[in-house]
From TrEMBL:
Domain CUB: 203-331
InterPro entries assigned to the protein according to its UniProt record, in alphabetical order: C-type_lectin-like, C-type_lectin-like/link_sf, C-type_lectin_CS, CTDL_fold, CUB_dom, Snaclec, Sperma_CUB_dom_sf
SMART domains with a match to the protein in the record: CLECT (SM00034), CUB (SM00042)
UniProt KW keywords: Disulfide bond
Pfam families according to UniProt: CUB (PF00431), Lectin_C (PF00059)
Protein name (record): CUB domain-containing protein
PROSITE patterns, sorted: C_TYPE_LECTIN_1 (PS00615), C_TYPE_LECTIN_2 (PS50041), CUB (PS01180)
Gene3D superfamilies xrefs: Mannose-Binding Protein A, subunit A, Spermadhesin, CUB domain
C-type lectin domain mapped to chain residues: 1-76, 89-196
Lineage: Eukaryota, Metazoa, Ecdysozoa, Nematoda, Chromadorea
Length: 332
């Protein structure tokens, strides 16, 4: 860094100002504003010149400049632990790979002891966009309540495109290469996908048996039947009203010993009469997680103790409502 400063007169910093007030100058790594420390030259910030900020050498003073001006720059990565992977960012390894179907992409990530990538910060969003310059499949599943990550991590960062996520276009979350925005689709237009794993995670190199998943969106009554996670389970006709006097059951399982996360994104049934029961296991003899009716409720969910979940829905012969929709994903 010392040599760089010595050899270059000025270079861009990761700071953007929106007014002359330093509290409105934001670092692009989301670390806050310049209010806690700054070294602006006299008369700055001055957004009349430009919103971007450069470091002036000698002297080390900061000044505004036109963002289109060509200046040297320094990229800073967050600290991370060592690993043999090529793309190492903030204690995770990333593997950008060329396109496959969604089940094939999941299988390939399994082979790498990884999962389809979740995104948790603007920096991670930009990093993935930099290593995967095409429409890229991520590890998210869109639903009426937003989206969830297949790896079970929280949805603590949102980069939806200018249009709200429309799960009716398909349940799989993808990333626009030009903007980094997320959008939902059926997964057929992805040219790349990115696998992600923690650095140093043990990996035997053995391919898990039955590693491919069949993603199913089911508002039909299986009665009986089993589908593989990840899955979307909805009451018949959802989001329209379900029929009267109907009984439905769904069995959902994951491969191996993966537990399942069920998120009920919307729920509205006739209170006390039209009931959804959820069991922690393969059938209705398994422990009952809960029996639900009424609503409408805010999204809620839970994690199973094993690789199976069983759901039943019973409506009486009278009033009908919009019902429910849920997403079920393996927890890795």
């Amino acid at each position: 860094m010392t040599n760089f400063l010595f050899n270059h007169g000025s270079f861009w910093m990761g700071l953007y100002c929106f007014s002359k007030d330093r509290s409105q100058c934001f670092w692009d790594d989301d670390s806050g504003t310049a209010i806690s420390y700054s070294n602006f030259a006299s008369g700055y910030p001055n957004i009349g010149i430009g919103k971007c900020v450069y470091y002036s050498n000698p002297g080390g003073l900061w000044a505004n400049g036109d963002c289109g001006e060509l200046l040297p720059y320094v990229c800073e990565l967050p600290p991370t632990l060592p690993d043999t992977c090529l793309h190492n960012y903030k204690n995770h390894c990333y593997y950008p790979l060329t396109g496959s179907s969604v089940p094939e992409a999941i299988e390939k990530c399994d082979e790498l002891c990884a999962t389809l990538a979740s995104v948790h910060s603007p920096g991670e969003n930009r990093f993935i966009a930099s290593i995967s310059p095409e429409i890229t499949l991520l590890g998210g599943i869109a639903s009426p309540g937003g989206y969830i990550w297949m790896d079970g991590t929280p949805t603590d960062y949102n980069n939806d495109d200018v249009y709200p996520l429309d799960y009716k276009n398909g349940p799989f979350l993808s990333m626009n290469p030009g903007t980094g925005d997320f959008f939902a689709s059926d997964g057929s237009h992805n040219k790349m996908f990115v696998c992600k794993r923690p650095v140093g995670a043990p990996c035997s190199g053995q391919i898990p048996q039955n590693a491919t998943y069949t993603f199913t969106s089911s508002s039909k009554c299986l009665n009986p039947g089993v589908i593989m996670a990840p899955a979307i389970i909805s009451s018949p006709n959802y989001p329209k009203d379900y029929p009267a006097d109907v009984f439905c059951s769904w069995g959902v399982s994951s491969t191996g010993s993966h537990r399942l996360r069920m998120t009920i994104n919307a729920f509205d049934t006739e209170k006390n009469d039209d009931i959804v029961k959820i069991y922690d296991g393969e059938d209705d003899k398994s422990p009952l997680i809960g029996a639900y009716s009424g609503g409408p409720f805010k999204p809620f969910g839970f994690v199973t103790s094993g690789p199976s979940i069983y759901i039943t829905f019973l409506s009486d012969r009278y009033y009908t409502f919009s019902g429910f929709t849920s997403t079920i994903t393996p927890v890795f």
